[in-house]
Design goal:
The chain is elongated and about 70 Å long. It is of the alpha/beta class. The protein has helices spanning about 15-25, 40-50, 60, 65-75, 110-120, 140, 155-165, 210-215; strands at about 30-35, 60-65, 90-95, 125-130, 145-150, 185-190, 220-225. Helix 1 (about 15-25) packs across helix 2 (about 40-50). Strand 3 (about 90-95), helix 5 and strand 4 form a beta-alpha-beta unit. About 15% of the residues are buried. Strands 2-3-4-1-5 form a 5-stranded parallel beta sheet, with helices on both faces. It folds into 2 domains: about 15-165, P-loop containing nucleotide triphosphate hydrolases (Rossmann fold, 3-Layer(aba) Sandwich); about 175-225, no CATH class. The chain has 8 helices and 7 strands. This is DNA adenine methylase. InterPro entries: P-loop_NTPase.
Length: about 240
């Protein structure tokens, strides 16, 4: 099964996915940024919009009402308006629960809103909503969303993680043999069934000659999780572990 979104060095995965969805797949993209007041929902939506389109115009493409959203979408269709020349047609709808809450979902605005979401696919519009909770939108609107970005705040620990996360390499999940994995410079963590394991390892059928060759050929550092009695490689204990 292929991953929908994969990491590539130097690229933001969601940005690349959204761009590909609207240009190559000829579809729209609808997402919501949720979180408590002041957490940075609008800033997150603006940052992602600029990542997609470096010329994103906050003044022209950010709306605070249903009528404002309609005005922006109409400008995309107006060939005389500068927004009509945009490759990526992005709209940020900030705090839509003011107009469209689940308490008054039968209102005229909500009906028009649902109609809009289900019919503007041909315009390949990217729309980001910013609201405290997902259930502020009615169920019909929620079903049409493609993603939810949950804003959880910021602290020094997360900041340090964010600074290095771009250096990580991610593998897609595969059910094939480990021998098919491409070799590259990395820190390899290998966790085979232990040689002297308990009752659940008695039927171990690992070809250790192949596993030894695989480990020795890896570029970079190799860390193996094994029983302290194992000797199929010249192990050096990294962490003393009881049990």
């Amino acid at each position: 099964m292929r991953n929908i979104i994969m990491y590539k060095k130097g690229q933001r995965s969601w940005t690349r996915y959204i761009q590909k969805r609207v240009t190559k797949a000829n579809k729209n993209f609808l997402a919501v940024f949720t979180g408590q007041t002041g957490i940075g929902k609008t800033l997150g939506a603006i940052e992602e919009s600029i990542s997609i389109d470096p010329l994103f115009d906050v003044e022209q493409q950010l709306a605070f009402s249903f009528s404002g959203v309609m005005r922006i979408i109409n400008n995309f269709s107006n060939k005389q308006h500068p927004l009509s020349k945009k490759k990526y047609k992005i709209v940020i709808y900030d705090e839509p629960q003011i107009d469209l809450s689940n308490r008054d979902w039968q209102s005229k605005a909500n009906k028009l809103f649902n109609f809009l979401l289900s019919t503007f696919r041909h315009q390949n519009i990217i729309m980001f909503f910013c609201l405290p909770y997902l259930d502020f939108l009615d169920s019909a609107s929620v079903k049409l969303l493609h993603a939810e970005f949950k804003c959880r705040g910021w602290n020094e620990k997360k900041k340090k993680i964010a600074e290095v996360v771009g250096r990580f390499n991610y593998w897609r999940v595969t059910r094939q043999s480990y021998k098919t994995i491409e070799n590259q410079e990395a820190t390899w963590f290998i966790d085979p069934p232990y040689v002297y394991g308990g009752k659940f390892y008695r039927y171990n059928k690992i070809d250790y000659k192949q596993l030894i060759r695989f480990c020795l050929e890896r570029e970079g550092e190799v860390i193996v999780c094994e029983n302290s009695k194992a000797s199929w490689l010249p192990f050096e204990e990294l962490v003393a572990n009881r049990g």
